[in-house]
Protein 1
Amino acid sequence: MALAKISGENRRIKSILFLIFCALAGIFPHFIEPSKNLFPSITLAVLLGGYGLRVVLQDRRDNYQLQKEYLIKDEKFVETLPKVDVLVAARDEENVIERLVSRLLSIEYPEEKLSLWIIDDGSQDRTPDLLQKLRTNFPRINVLSRPLMSGGGKSGALNSVLNKTDGEWLFILDADAQLQSNVLLRAIALALHGGWSAVQLRKSVVNCDLNPIASYQAMEMAMDAVIQRGRLAFGGVSELRGNGQLINRKKLESCGGFNEQTITDDLDLSFRFLLTRSPIVIMWDPPIQEEAVETLSALFRQRKRWAEGGLQRFFDYWPLLISKRLSNFKKIDLSCFFLLQYVLPVVSFIDFIVSLILFDMPLYWPLSIVAFGISSLAFWKGCSQHSEGPSLPSPNFINILGATIYLAHWFIVIPFIVFKMSLFRKTLIWEKTDHIGS
């Protein structure tokens, strides 16, 4: 099966089969005699809890950081820097587009080796007019306009500019990205000296003081980076996160470019890189800074897209994920991640519904407690580390408790998405996150 030909066929059937499996797993323990009905949950809690604990403990502050910072100031190194294309897909970004251009122009990199591109993907607000003025004032900014409903979402927008650029590396940013001026130099140095095919910058939140929702998102991003770096250090799999990803063009082309049949280009591309043995590293400092969504409705809208895209890639690539392309340890890592991230929320939801019907006690609580406990540890570890970006929330008991409770929204979002994917046909629409301009 060629990666370039995977287009997401039969996702609805695969989702139905996944739902049936989760339903059986959630119902089955309720028909085991009471003395043994917790055995499945306790067994999984021990196995997955041990995996999760080791992953979190594997992350170290100096993991995958550029150890020789002087390299970015070394004249010989600067002379040999590769050409980089900075790409931003923007739709209806009038609140942040001017700040974005200012940030792009401040990037420290040899001007002759850096091209800056903004793809206006059918904006219906003032974004096209602002880009025209900015292009006049700053000729270094290249603008490509796509008509509304051009198709392919963010992947289509990024693909549309690839034949107009020739950089050896692509630096992908979101329109609300804020970054330190030397971040590209440091990411390139890490990629070149570490032999990485892609570098994902840790994501941080610029408006984390706004309200608890934003604060918990900042903690969640730190937790995610800890887990990603721990999985990689443990010999497992790390993933791209969309904003702040530095990608080797040849590796991108070798796995078919950006997939226009997915709603989460970064998660899909992560699996394509994995299957073509193109390693991804997570860089802690400096981070890429972005806005957290500010309301519960916006949070759920964003997370539904993330959940659906995350499941889509497992449904699309599972034959290759269990093939000889991956080592046994990477298969184990992916299996544990899949069970904790996607299976547990659905099984727990069904377990809860069955317990209400049977006037019984939920039986997967030991596994859920372990999963939340590991998450709390990752929250604490992430927020305890130094950050060159915005200050992370204090890892005190109240904040960690609140963030752990906040994390339970996945136990609502993922079951909802699984039922939706099973019952309704999906029309691929790029539902962007609104940016306020924090």
Protein 2
Amino acid sequence: MRGRFKTFCERKKVDITWRAYFVDALGAMALGLFASLLIGTIFQTLGDKTGWDVFVTIAKYAKAATGAAIAVAIAYKLRCEGLVLFSAIAVGIAGNELGGPMGAYVAVLVAIELGKMVYKETQVDILVTPAVVIISGVLVAFAIGPAIGRLMTALGAFIEHATLMQPLLMGIVVSVVIGMVLTLPISSAAICLAIGLGGIAGGAATAGCCAQMIGFAVLSFRENRWGGLLAQGLGTSMLQMGNIVKNPRIWIPPTLAAAITGPLATCVFHLENIPIGSGMGTCGLVGPIGIYTAMPDGGMNMWIGMLLICFVLPALLSWLFGTILRKIGWIKEGDLKIEC
């Protein structure tokens, strides 16, 4: 029986694995968020600052598509076809409305996997597949969406409150942890948005993400030159994951940099961010844009803090720590080489 079920799942492209659900699906969820809520937030900021109503209107529609974008992104990544993919849109909208992005994530996962199992298995597939996907997904959204939404909100509020109470300690913890998550094959942006990690805790998270991205970009410049600098500094430090597996010591410089810039962000510059920008770092400059969105009246202190925390200090500290590790032989020539 077990063997037959495994064969059936393989035939229906149902991959019940940790990687599929917590790496691929979360990463896809982040892309859906970028294509809707994130770009909508940027347009909203543009509209507010320029007074151009067209940007505000665009932002409204982009943000309204968040649930649908999450659904399509996850369904596409998990190899859904036809009616399964199209029907998932309704589930994403319901899940996002009832439980936020994480509610949409859970509801869509359940719905599309059940949908894939019945897809093209009956003579009335045009009715059966949409019915299975939408009914199962919406029921899941109603059943657990509100609880998931409350849990994520409470978790984010707890972290933000703890950071306000202990800005030094939590500045280090949040910066280091979120920064490392950004480099791992897990979506830090999706996690930060799911728990609503904003405010001063969001500033610490941004510091950690920038430390990893700018840190690795500068640390590996001798191996990867300008292409690697741009790919990691404006793209993702995840490009170094393969090298980290081979030599985990290369992760020390940017992580130490994060441990320093995090508390500077919380204790000295009091940087804040919005949840969608907290886990992005310098990827497309979304992290700095998020800081400006969260602190539009931050003044010179904000601009100096943003420059130092997001760019200057990660570069200098990672280069310094990297130089020390190269001298003692912990990092060797070629350890940071990537294929851009």
